């Protein structure tokens, strides 16, 4: 690619959809064993990992009446071990070195998948074959009762979340009782409670057979060797029979109907207009057309945004999406409302859709959206894991692993008239309307397999940090480039200063408003034209406001790089912080702020930051803004903030692409003007100290049937030793379902679906991390759960630090993460950004790798004070029914903090 750059030509350039089809290519091998197991292998010798996906053709829609939830419950049971390998499956795999082990159940299928070092392939295949052959006879009443309790807790937690019942309401309103997709995937509680050991065993024996399964292997493997291993471990298993699947059906058509519900959502209201759509298995072309129709309707230049957002002004946003399925799918129009919706809005949706179906779609818009869809398909081929899922879905739903190729051809061939004609068959005037109004207050023995366990070595897994080249542009900004010869895709990121924490006093919310620039327009384009330009170039773009930075990301295919640079230059240098779109967004932010201010979660988050950073800190004030401030921020305020955030003196471009450094420097120099010195609109960074004002703060959610518990603290790793030790601690404590906190609270006590923990780069330039622990428990266990977590945390600091086994497991997982840092363009960008904040040279992670390899129990004990504060210095927030939880905390000896004092002198 030449270094010459013409901004006008780059703005006008559009990607030809036909040029994308040759980029949709991938090699794979498919074979069916004598026992009926379908095996697909994709080899990528540049990847040190392997992804294994074993999918069974059975899902929630195959469950008989009265046995809903059986598929999902059986998925949980499959992790409880067999007589031959009695350990928990996740524990065994992760301790051996797997970086990710998981499963999922849908209405359509049940999938078990994991990512691990390629050397583990035989170990994984042996374990999966053992589960397939030997789990059912190993299933016990004790295992069933344990997992039943966990599933019921998961159901309670999931459905207690703000959007937790949306899918349930949709299915029950859209489909008649008795339809195979009418019931929720997790099932009805009474049905789950009624599953007997005999019923569970019958389900597994019927559906978990070779003839009913598809095995996909993708990554750094040899095809012939992988097939030989599959035959070795799976070949001797009795075939069983392919399950008789529920017949695909989308009807019968239902008359127009509506349901109104309340949930603790963060906007005044939502309207979901829902249609039942045909099976993706039998009507593949129709589904491709419906997916394209959804993208066209959701486009900013589409009829939904034009009518509901621009003309009527009743919605802050409008979208559409297709959820395809084996039996049937759902087509959903989603309106984010500025006030609770009225029934007349359903009539408006019907009229808008009908008119759109009757009138030709502008050719420019149609071509742009089609190109964007094809570009997205090409981008899916970046990852060996996503390749595996494409192959798996093609085989399971279409009987053709290469369906993604056929899908691409259909996309390229469809005309706008085809799309409207096919969509008209399914988007009838009668549909189901779901109105959701904001409710600030919640209401109420292996005979056939080898006896010898497979062995392997992970000692040769090495870190692969990105190697970059660097230059300073004429405008003063810096560019760091990771060259990726032959890569069909690129990722470009620009990072400035700013962010939420740098908002000037009295202008809170300005960073979020500035990050909406793509909606308003830039350069010569208004918001609609800019959206069309993005689609037509096959680009994906996102502007965001982090805590301490403004950031823009653009990705696409290699030919579109010059168009991406033109877009980046327009957004950074010529944003449109004015006009109707700007006013609508400012108004929407004000309305959203009014709703959010009443939510317990928002109050809890403010309290956390007030206790951690002081009540005068920006993060302890309105989040992200207050109604009054949102209305008062002016165009000049936002422009000054934006220009200051992307001042070239502190802006860095990160690029992962197939291009030479000289070429990209020439293009960027041509796109960006000489050094600019904008008027400062970004507040000076506040000094961030490690404040340790612990306590428990209770936030009232009357009628809530569960309690949300969060613990927070700040940490500043002073060196690589502290960072490695802190990450090892977090992994051992709550990094997986088999970690200490989850073994205790999830598996033994059965109080929660799980405890999660993370370490966020809160202020990367200050190397300050926010450490979090979160869980949701039943109301009676609130105080006791805090006590259990405190006890375990104290143990880590004193007599029960991470064991060498837990440290070794973390080390193996971390080695694999480091080995994948350059795997895809986005991974390379994220690794390069992390290394930028660390201040290390290109490709140099030696200090962290050395700390990782030297990690042991003694080092973690010695660094425990640097990793986390003592128990009394943790900041706890508890969200639940205060009338019940308050006395419970008091009885347990916990003093609840006064939140008024947190903000009293702010």
TrEMBL record:
GO biological process per UniProt: proteolysis
Domain Peptidase M16 N-terminal: 39-162
Residue ranges annotated for the Peptidase M16 C-terminal domain, each copy included: 195-371, 632-812
Pfam family, one: Peptidase_M16_C
Any one GO molecular-function label of the UniProt entry: metallopeptidase activity
Family affiliation: Belongs to the peptidase M16 family.
The protein's name in its UniProt record: Zinc protease
Lineage: Bacteria, Pseudomonadati, Pseudomonadota, Alphaproteobacteria, Micropepsales
